[in-house]
Write a structure and sequence with these properties.
By secondary structure, the protein is α+β, with helices and mostly antiparallel strands. It is about 40% helix and about 20% strand. The chain has a domain at about 300-435 and about 475-519: Nucleotidyltransferase, domain 5 (2-Layer Sandwich). A hairpin with a 3-residue loop joins β1 (about 5-10) and β2. The protein is globular.
Length: about 525
């Protein structure tokens, strides 16, 4: 098999992956490393930036060796990565401290104060996005208050995939999609001096890197990086994208009105529109898409597969042992148990706000927390398991209902897309068809496809999608179940609205407990 070939790198939250792809979307080889998340304090989430680069380097070498192709036939390297968070470098381009991730909750009080003061609503008119505790602006203000020495040593701010670009090319930049999560005027796709001033971070303006279009070549593989990775010196490296903009590329989402959901650590629910979310809608997130005049309009709930991971770890020892005994995947054992329970989980509802940072869509609430509702002696562990599956799906509907787009189909990616049961539940709950697509690593594939556009292997993204995107299955909603879920959905929303002040009360009580314990 002859090239050309494309490399896609996805620097995710819990793992980094590098794939070698043909131009028709087939993956020849994949390198993967799990990346530990450090929690030095409750609610914190950090990563060692040096370790992340070493893992990326090793995955590149692993993928190239497994692909058994001449590296000279690789015509472009595409980048994708987790968004938000904060990565700071000193004057020598070395990390000042571990990166603070988007799931970090330490700045929750700052965000709550901004909400109370109306800053969130005012900022929304510029960027079309709500601020939550894992965003750069909130983290910078937290560092200013509690780690001023860190900011005194810092000269550069980067997003996750920008750190990989720096290590590959020696150049500093970000792209329009990642920059959308910073103090940006998304209408003009440039930094907003008004937002720097509004959030009180003007003194750090010089740390933010230049913004490039996602499909622009940002640099070439340096001699040092070539020696470390096995790539050929001079290979083009594109500016890249936030992962939630790379995955829809690999799903063939390239036109206005198309919708998708990434059911991973978060549940990122989105559709392509022509403009950022309107100022009258101060929740959700708007992100520049790698096509002119295309914007991702999203309600990115923090309620993803983390809920199922938590429940299986804490409550499903029997299923774990059964999976080990039979050699069956754990998610298949979980599905078989949940499938035995009828729609509605016997009246048990689950609100999946389990993230330490609370929730960010379709509402922003740092104190929001998960809960089961409606338990009785009639319920079993299987009912709770089924409720977790359904709770994430109800959250998805909650989010799509607040997007200003008529949804005709949801294209699905992420770990949740591997569950046939969950895909059918998503279709039944939302009432629209749900489609899955071939490809194991859609973030890396999306990065590779955009790299292909940048190096002129494809004339544009629609042509790239036509050649490289292949549908796997389509799940149609079942009318009777959709009606039943509709009744449950109304109760689901009523409960979480009623809990609004109770979440705050719980937080105040716990804060008082901690003060008493430390006195």
């Amino acid at each position: 098999m002859e090239g050309p070939y494309l490399v896609g790198i996805d620097a995710g939250t819990s793992a980094v992956k590098t794939g070698v792809f043909t131009t028709d979307g087939r993956i020849l080889a994949l390198g993967r490393r799990d990346v530990p998340i450090e929690t030095p304090h409750s609610g914190w989430a950090e990563q060692d930036m040096h370790a992340v680069w070493r893992d990326v380097r090793d995955t590149i070498r692993e993928a190239l060796a497994a692909a058994e192709i001449p590296p000279v036939e690789i015509v472009g390297v595409g980048l994708a990565g987790q968004g938000d968070g904060c990565r700071l470098l000193d004057e020598h381009l070395a990390p000042v401290r571990p990166s603070i991730l988007w799931i970090d909750g330490r700045a929750g009080d700052i965000v709550a104060r901004w909400q109370h003061e109306g800053l969130n609503d005012e900022a929304f008119g510029y960027c079309g996005s709500a601020v939550f505790s894992g965003t750069a602006m909130a983290i910078l203000r937290w560092l200013e208050q509690y780690e001023p020495e860190t900011l005194n040593r810092s000269r550069h701010f980067l997003f996750a995939k920008d750190w990989i670009q720096l290590k590959l090319t020696g150049t500093l930049s970000t792209d329009e999609s990642d920059a959308s999560r910073g103090p940006i005027d998304l209408h003009r796709r440039c930094y907003s001096e008004e937002l720097f001033q509004l959030f009180g971070i003007t003194r750090y303006r010089s740390m933010f890197p230049p913004i490039l279009p996602s499909a622009r070549v940002a640099g070439q593989v340096s001699r040092a990086a070539a020696e470390e990775t096995g790539l050929v010196e001079g290979t083009p490296v594109i500016a890249g994208m936030i992962d939630v903009a790379a995955m829809p590329v690999a799903l063939g989402v390239v036109e206005h009105g198309q919708a998708y959901a990434i059911v991973g650590t978060t549940c990122f629910n989105a559709a392509l529109g022509e403009a950022p979310l309107p100022p009258t809608h101060p929740e959700g997130m708007s992100i520049a898409y790698p096509r002119p005049r295309h914007v991702i309009q999203s309600m990115p709930s923090l309620a993803g597969t983390t809920n199922l991971d938590w429940f299986s770890r804490e409550c499903c020892n029997a299923e774990q042992r059964e999976a080990e005994r039979t050699g069956t995947a754990l998610h298949q054992c979980l599905e078989s148990q949940a499938a035995k329970v009828s729609v509605g989980a016997g009246g048990v509802l689950y609100h999946p706000y389990i993230n330490p940072g609370g929730e960010r869509a379709p509402f922003v609430k740092p104190t929001a927390r998960a809960q089961f509702f409606g338990l009785s002696l009639d319920h079993s562990r299987a009912h709770l398991l089924r409720a977790v599956y359904e709770g994430v799906a109800l959250s998805m509907r909650d989010c799509f209902q607040d997007l200003p787009v008529d949804i005709e189909e949801i294209r699905l990616a992420g770990g949740g897309a591997a569950s046939r049961l969950w895909c059918q539940i998503f279709a039944d709950v939302t009432g629209v068809p749900v489609s899955t697509f071939h490809g194991r690593e859609l973030g890396a594939l999306g990065g590779a496809m955009v790299a292909g556009v940048a190096v002129q292997q494809f004339p544009d993204l629609p042509h790239a999608a036509e050649k490289a995107v292949h549908r796997a299955e389509k799940y149609e909603p079942r009318a009777r179940f959709h009606q039943q879920y509709g009744e449950l959905f109304e109760l689901y929303r009523r409960i979480r609205q009623h809990l609004w002040e109770d979440w705050d009360l719980r937080d105040r009580i716990l804060h008082h407990f901690s003060q008493v314990a430390s006195s």
